[in-house]
Fold:
Amino acid sequence: MKKLLEKVVCLFCCLSLCCMSFTVNAAANVDLAKETYCEDVLLQMSHGFSLQPMNTGDTINISNSFLLYNFIEEPVAIFYKIDPVGYAIYDFKNGIVLQYSTESNHRFYVDKNDHYYYEGLLEYYTKTEGGFLNLITGIVKDVDLHNYSFTANDFYANGNVVKESNIGLYSASEGPVYLLKNTRLYNCNKSVNFPTFYPDKTTAELSKCPGVCGSVAVAIMLECYDDYYALPTGYSFVDSTVKASNPYYPDIYGIELVKQVVPYIEPSANGSFLLDSGVRSYLSDRNINGGVALGVLAVYQQTKYAIGSDGSGWPVIVGNTKHYCVAIGYQDVTQKQIYVNNGYGDKEWYNANTIVSTWTMVVNGTK
Structure:
């Protein structure tokens, strides 16, 4: 831990050099280079930096950072670009890093000169004709701006903001712990693929489809269990021909398996989920007894229980108010955070208080 603190101090020193040429968004009255903001971000990301060799350039790039807005043009978060690789999205009102990565740059927030909107994890938008374009799915969202409200508290489960004490946690920190089993980075939850998932739906119906993140999360779980769970000869969780289809093509990795899962999990194309009953039906059709069980522990504890203290356990589906993805790690160094395969081709860290529920796979043998 002493070395970790030394690294953080080093980062702060590097940051002080970057902050000499900061910009202030006067209209919003939010200072992107505010020292307490930047130090807080680096502190909450400190274990992420420790995963790679330290460089003097591993710090916040203020000149390529910018504000994120809700749909009525109120700033709700700051997007910080991390050099040489990475990003953080920071709730400056509550002082919490909502999500971050030091492994890859953000896939959708790419141009500091563009104007971006943000409604929490995996809800990335730009303004377009007819509404707001979801940068992940490609669906345009129609928003009644006269009756719209979104504040920083809406980022969290049930609106409950919980910021841990950074000082108190150092003596009892844990992790990071990473799942030892591999999960595939399926990335086919895009509007261009909706006709494949719902061949009987009209264009008008598909234009209202919010996506198939539940089916993608279940598919990621199924392929992992198929790779590592020992079933009797002749049984399998998925067909091998669809499990690894199209891994090197953008936006269609996993499309064949997700296509098989969608009728069980999201048959109506309207955002409704049938997680446990859908998984049970899917497995039953493959002569396997099982399903997914809603977690009874707090989200962080349930994730820790599923993955195990040494990472030898299993992935677990986690959901916020709008999306499902798959947890593959956890840590509690300065904040309780969960490492996820987000279902869009990337891995990133989420603050645990942004997660609402967990769903653990349960297998009870074969028929």
User: Anything to note?
Assistant: The chain is about 25% helix and 25% strand.
